[in-house]
């Protein structure tokens, strides 16, 4: 029986998502290497630009990373001068994370980079097709996330 989610080339949705994901990561890595950033750091800087002073756990949840992994990434970012971690004034066990001026400057470049990547990805798409694509991807994400929550 033929998979109803196969396209005319025989690719499954699974392979299409993997192929697009790998290529997008490779393209974005080229841009971010020029800014001396690892693949995980742009998402963190982008999140902090909207949530400066948040706690590490919030960043880990947003980026879907384990707490220990996030601690390691933030340590590297702090040594690079992109962020600063300060004890929370109400609970010294908690660290709040802030962008430094260097981090803010680089984050502006990240926004431009994401815009450029979007432009590359969506070349030849109409606004309606773009809206449909986002809708489909959100539905796929929600379906998978619901199953993930059920399995937890």
Rounded mean pLDDT is 90
Give the DSSP E fraction (strand runs of 2 or more residues).
5-15%
N/C terminus separation: 32 Å
The total tally of domains equals 2
How would you characterize the overall build of this protein?
The protein is mostly helical and 152 residues long. It has two domains: 13-121, Arc Repressor Mutant, subunit A; 126-152. It is built from six helices and two strands, in the order H-H-H-H-E-E-H-H. The protein has helices at residues 13-34, 41-50, 56-62, 67-79, 101-121, 127-151; strands spanning 83-87, 95-99. It has a two-stranded antiparallel ribbon. Helix 3 packs across helix 4 (67-79). The longest helix is centred in the C-terminal third of the chain and has 25 residues, at 127-151. The radius of gyration is 19 Å and the shape is globular. The two termini are 32 Å apart. The mean pLDDT is 90.
């Amino acid at each position: 029986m033929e998979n109803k989610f196969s396209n005319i080339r025989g690719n499954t949705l699974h392979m299409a998502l993997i192929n697009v994901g790998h290529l997008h990561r490779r393209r974005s890595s080229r841009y971010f290497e020029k800014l001396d950033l690892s693949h995980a750091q742009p998402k963190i800087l982008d999140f902090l630009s909207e949530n400066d002073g948040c706690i590490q756990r919030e960043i880990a949840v947003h980026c879907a990373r384990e707490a220990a992994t996030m601690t390691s990434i933030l340590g590297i970012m702090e040594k690079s001068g992109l962020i600063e971690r300060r004890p929370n004034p109400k609970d010294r066990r908690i660290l709040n994370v802030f962008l430094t001026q260097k981090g803010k400057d680089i984050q502006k470049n990240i926004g431009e980079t994401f815009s450029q990547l979007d432009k590359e990805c969506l070349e030849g798409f109409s606004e309606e097709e773009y809206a449909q694509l986002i809708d489909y991807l959100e539905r796929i994400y929600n379906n998978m996330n619901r199953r993930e929550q059920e399995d937890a």
